[in-house]
Amino acid sequence: MAIDFRGQSAPASEEGMMHVFWLSGMSCDGCSVAMLGASNPSIEDLVLDRVPDLPLVVMHHPMIAEESGAELMAQYSAAGQNQLGAPYILVVEGSIPDDQALSSGAFASMGAGSSAARGRGRATDWIVALAPNAAATIAIGTCATWGGIPAAAGNITRSMSLMDFLGGGYRSSRGLPVVNVPGCAPQGDNFMETLANIMRGLTGNRDMPQFDELGRPAWLFDQTVHVHCPKAGYYEEGIFAEEPGDNECLVEIGCWGPVVQCNIVERGAVNHLGGCMVAGGACIGCTMPGFPDKYSPFYKAPPGSAISGGLTKVTGSAIRRMRLMSMKMANREPIWERAGDGTTAWGRAAGLDSPLERINGKFYKKLQYKGSVNQASRNKLQPQPQSMDILRQKGVDVEASTDVLQEHVITREEL
Amino acid sequence: MTTIAIDPVSRVAGPLALQAEVDASGNFSDATTSASIFRGYEVLLRERDVRDAIFISSRACGICGATHSITSALALEMMFGIRPPQFGITMRNLLTTLDNMIDHPLHLFTRAGLDYSEPVVRATNPELWTAAEATAAPGVDIHGLKTIGAIMTHMTRYTGDLYREALAMSRTACEAFVIIGGKYPHPQTIVPGGISSTVDASDLSLTLLRVVKFLDYSRRTAAIWDDLVDFMFEANAGYRSVGAAPANFLDLGLGDDPEAYDGTYERAASWGERRWATPGAVLNGRLQTTSVVDIDIGVEEFVDSSFYDDWTGQSQPLLTTDPLGNAVSARHPWNKQTLPKPANADLRGKHSWSTAPRWRNNAMETGAAARLWITAVANTMPHRGFAEPTGSGIRFGFPQSALPQGEIEWRVPEQWGALERNRARAYALAQSTLIAYENVLVGFDLARIGGPEAGIFTHYKIPSDHVIGVGYGGGPRGYVSHHVEVDSKVIRNYQIVSPSTFIAGSRAAGSPGPLEAAIMATPSLATAGHDRHIDLMRTIRSYDLCMSCSSH
Q1: A117: pLDDT confidence band, cut at 50, 70 and 90?
Q2: What torsion, rounded to 10 degrees, do the Cα atoms A282, A284, A286, A287 define?
Q3: In the CATH scheme, what is the code of domain B2-551?
Q4: What are the tens digits of pLDDT across the range A308-334?
Q5: Residues of chain B neighbouring A272 (CB-CB closer than 8 A)
Q6: Backbone CA torsion sign across B226, B413, B502, B350
Q7: Candidates B177, B197, B459; nearest CB to A243
Q8: Dihedral, CA atoms, A100, A66, B174, B498, nearest 10 degrees?
Q9: Which run of H or of E encompasses B477?
Q10: Are strands B356-359 and B299-302 parallel, antiparallel or unpaired?
């Protein structure tokens, strides 16, 4: 089979192109900021056609566009009327207001004063015009996916998600319901990777990716954020932060991570850095339906944590004690055990000589090597190297200058 | 006379619509600007637990969410009677300056910058492009680009090195932000009494390594904009009039002095003056005050052109005098009630979701440029490790990085307009960078010294009586204030004033808003492609508006 070089030669052909039309409902532009901040792939990768198995992307976005007003909106109109000569993906950011039901006015609009205007230029008018012919429709961010803050209690805009606005019967021209990439703001790579994978599916270069029952990219949102949380180990051992700034599990200061589907601690916020709990911020469920009201008030422990957290405090503290014992043994090189001296220039290795731990260690190793070769007893028989402590052997005096560092050593017990 | 309607104006955050009359020579009159979005944050925040305030109000703006969340925390601290430990204040300073550093490059090279890129200049002013190609760039030793033409070429959308570098540097600042802030643009780590981050030696080091990349980048950026702006003025003095505006500035400063900030309203004027950028009000180039209280109390919001019912006369004012005895207007945020009323746009009447704030009845310009100007002329900024105000400018000192140690200076210009606004924004990147750098160093020192001030959080008890608090913040676009009224731990009123509300706000008592006035002062200098109104666009984009934030 011949190698397909499609996309590697510039300029791209018409069928190697895909348009992306960005529409903002009631948004804060945070989703656009997240998209611009993404690197995997980046917007430059897409619009400069740098990735061979992806089409050349023509991005229509008011915050990026060279054109304004009628000139810009004419392209949106052409898309809705299928006059582009290439497929397009519709991306919607922000909650969808109920302004189709208003006799006058709008809560989010653009292009009202231009010749390409549809209705009052409401964002909702543009969605109605563009969604039916889109090859795929993606809701980015919690406002567009579920409703978000503009749809919270007390709102006067009666806003809703894109999915609820278009209705359960909606399918894109290629048969997809609304794809939902939630988060307030969403992790930028979550969106760009989903966009890229959908384009691969649409062009037939790959299978269409998997989505869950709420239209979320399944490979990104299938687990709770707690499962990958770097603080989940504290939870397991029953140790909890008492106040902001503490390093332990944040459940008792208001973290909903154990029940929230999100991947930000695994992926990081940007380029594998940060992520809410990684930095010390408690999860308030910003990727979830019902955010914010279902997670209010913030900074207060979720009721469920009293039971699950209480249980781990009992079991976790016992496990932690056993682990601390194992860790004492683990922090020793066999060469020190043979010498009977765990002293380094930094301090004395803890518990080397405790009789209880020696018995315990023996029992532990027996179990560990059962059915295998006992490397610990083999290691005991190894001869000691002769050039240990070489500076003393050669008579070099180094003791006068080293003590300053001793003050800064932290033992495991102190940690 | 013909009527032009531009809706939306692109490369502005959020939807901005413009209508104006234009005569045969391209002069604008009757300019009207509208914010075409409303979400109702002030309405939604009513009847909520006060603990929800920070993370909900932050989400009014996806560009300076960090600044809004910190501003909200300051308001809550005033109500709770607490202040964070010095290390906590320092880390918040770092986050708020990084918020600025994420955005400044995007403004300079992906939004406003495009209007000076090769394809645009060639299409609108071929003679300018010819001159640019032939003009050597004086700053070549700093930025490496030999001609003005080369600068313009590299400002081209997507393919230009400067365009792509701005995206990359913005991401670098974003990385630095999330190491301690956790997430961007809406950080999950801001709490009353400090932040909830666990900051260890590697967090500060990782942050520092990203901030120092901006030492070079901000110097190069300033040199590029110096060359570009000076060239434009030299080529055609008419460019000095593009976006011309009076020197009326308002700003609340940037970053708190960890030794001075105490969260009280009574001493706000004093701790405000010790900020890393000086708060102030300037009218026609003359400094009026540097007190955050005077600045705040002078603000009034008008809804003549806005889709809201007037609240005055409908409800009892909360305050007639503030806790210091200053008279408070019925139109001040303390007394404002948000009463939205959607309607079809009537350009002679109500047509915008933005209110129109005024300061002592003057239309004011906010932004990073205002912050620079006020800090320069006030000449009282106490943190002089890397920045030295002179009364007529600010000298910025850079430690050696990839470039050798050096100094740059921003000077108050004689005439204010779109190009000077962009030049000031470039120097504001240097200002933010050096404030961030200094705060990392202060952070290292506080961590080394240890003790209670090396903590990051202070405990609080939420009062159950009626309390009020105000937060004063500074985003990439400047002025942010949150006024909060709480009773029985529940929010009764929440009022946000943001920088673009000042600029994009339309007419009040018949007088135009700052953006409308600047448009009407702008000549059309295009010699080809006249219909694209490039100089009008340059004027609008020099303000770097955020319409979502402006209307909230």
Answers
A1: low
A2: 80
A3: 1.10.645.10
A4: 888 999 999 999 988 888 887 788 888
A5: none
A6: negative
A7: B459
A8: -60
A9: none
A10: antiparallel
Q: What is the DSSP string of B74-90?
A: HHHHHHHT----HHHHH
Nearest CA in chain A to B160: A44
C-alpha span between A192 and A201 (Å, rounded): 14
Higher pLDDT, A67 or A364: A67
| Type and span of the H or E element at A326 | helix A304-330
Name the least confident of A219-233, A385-399, B151-165: A385-399
Give domain A14-217's CATH architecture: 3-Layer(aba) Sandwich (3.40)
Angle at which helices B126-134 and B213-235 pack, to 10 degrees? 120
For B39, the enclosing helix (H) or strand (E) is none
Residues of A in contact with B158 (CB under 8 A): 44, 47-48
SS3 B286: strand
Whole-number Cα distances in Å, B293 to B319, B336, B383 = 15, 17, 21
Strand A17-24, strand A88-93: pairing? parallel
Span B313-370, pLDDT tens digits? 888 999 999 999 999 999 999 999 999 999 999 999 999 999 999 999 999 999 999 9
Contact, A196 vs A49, CB < 8 A?
A: no
Strands B286-289 vs B299-302: parallel, antiparallel or unpaired? unpaired
What is the complex's ipTM, to 2 decimals? 0.97
Q: A89 is written with which tokens? A: 């993906």
Nearest to B17 among A28, A112, A153 (CB): A112
Residues 328-387 of A with CB under 8 A from B: none
pLDDT band at A306 (very low <50, low <70, confident <90, very high): confident
Phi–psi pair at B315, nearest 5 degrees: -135, 155
Q: How deeply is B470 buried, as exposed, middle or buried, from its count of CB atoms within 10 A (0-12, 13-18, 19+)? A: buried
Looking at residue B107, the DSSP 8-state letter turns out to be I
Angle at B531 between CA B529 and CA B534, to 5 degrees: 75
Q: How far apart are CA B82 and CA B102, in angstroms?
A: 30
What's the confidence (pLDDT) of residue B95?
97
Q: Where do the domains of chain B lie?
A: 2-551
Phi then psi for residue A299, to 5 deg, are 65, 15
Residues of chain A with CATH 3.40.50.700: 14-217
Q: What H or E segment, with its residue span, contains residue A277? A: helix A276-279
Chain A residues touching B191 at Cβ < 8 A: 244, 299
Residue A363's pLDDT is what? 84
User: Residue for token digits 């709102």?
Assistant: A155
Residue A368, Cβ neighbours under 10 Å: how many? Answer: 11
- CA closest to A48 among chain B residues: B158
Selected for mutation to probe chain B from A21, A24, A28 (highest B CB count within 10 Å) is A28
Q: Lowest mean pLDDT of A204-208, B45-49, B303-307, B493-497, name the range.
A: A204-208
pLDDT at A350 over 80: no
Q: Which residues of B276-306 are buried (b: 16+ CB within 10 A; e: fewer)?
A: bbbbbbbbeeebbbbbbbbbbbbbbbbbbbb
